[in-house]
Amino acid sequence: MASASYKLSPWLHRWLNRRIPAAKHQRLSHRSIFILPSGFGLMWLLLSLLLFLFGTNYQNNLVIGLSLLLGSIFVSAILYSYRNLAGLRLSALPAPDVYAGETVAIPLKVTADSQLYQINLSYPAGDVVTVKEVASQGQIAALPLPTRHRGYLSPGRLLVESHYPLGLCRVWSWVDMDNPLLVFPAYHPDKVRLHSIPGGGEDSPLYQFGIDEFCGLKSWHPGESLKQVAWKQFAQGRGMLSKEFSDPHGDPVWLQLPANLCGEALEQALETLCWQVDQLAKQNCVNWGLQLDKQQLPPAAGEAQRIACLRALAVYQPLTMTEASDEQQ
């Protein structure tokens, strides 16, 4: 898999923003397609010119005819190269969760009005992905892109390129799919400790919170687990009864970001919190929240709580000196 190595200049970015605005759905047409001879195409034209000069100089009609044939093939290649991108439709799809330092596969749906061939797709910092055939039913292309830091990441303009059919012309387009990614902090494993803010500051171990407690008996119904059957009561002749359990409901507990951190210490603390959030979600812990300076995510549970906390960690910015002094006052 080849690696893309192009960088657009600022003035070209501004011109492209006016000519090809950002959108989650793009359809290539004459306004967004560019075409020039390739290196091989330039050599082809040079050969055609030399043959024409040679034929006219020596009055050789066969050589002149050959030069005209090569020229006509080149003109036909221009038309077919353009048709191989015209009508191509690209649609941005939601990207999977990614943590800093990982490589994310950005999904794009690729469809076309007619059969297209050998389409190369790449982002500036990613690898080139070749779609051999594009048809009306479409397919999903996953474009790899490395990540380094947490926060929002813009992949940049997508390079769509083709040299089909003969390699005489390079036809391409730069499209902005308007698909910024949110990169979560990297993992930094550490012991998970929850803090009870209302109760006054004692650390609460993860597995001490949310344990089911016995709260009574009810009639057993077919299909329920036999592990829940109250066998002692059954032996006493009271019939089939099953045990009921409930979660204890104490003060809400919180994951907290230590105060007065900056630089690498802050990033490591955010990475630790990121790992702890995932651990709490895996353990199905209930009634926990996240506190980042003035920002608080109220206690909850489930996948929605995990995503909300990871997003808050990804975009967190420390308080400025003015904000910190106002908070202390």
SS element count, helices: 7
Overall strand count: 18
Largest sheet: 5 strands, antiparallel
User: What is the number of independent domains?
Assistant: 3
Unreliable stretches: 198-213, 321-325
The global form is: elongated
The average pLDDT is: 82
**Reading side by side through the largest sheet, how are the strands ordered?**
2-10-9-5-6
Question: Can you summarize this structure?
Answer:
With 329 residues, the protein is α+β, with helices and mostly antiparallel strands.
How would you sum up this structure, described in words?
With 329 residues, the chain is of the alpha+beta class. The protein has three domains: 10-183, no CATH class; 193-211 and 249-328, no CATH class; 219-245, no CATH class. The chain is 30% helix and 29% strand. It has seven helices and 18 strands. A five-stranded antiparallel β-sheet has the order 2-10-9-5-6. It has a four-stranded antiparallel β-sheet with strand order 1-3-4-7, with no helix packed on it. It has a three-stranded mixed β-sheet with strand order 16-17-18, covered by helices on one side. α2 runs antiparallel to α3 (61-83) and α5 runs antiparallel to α6 (303-314).
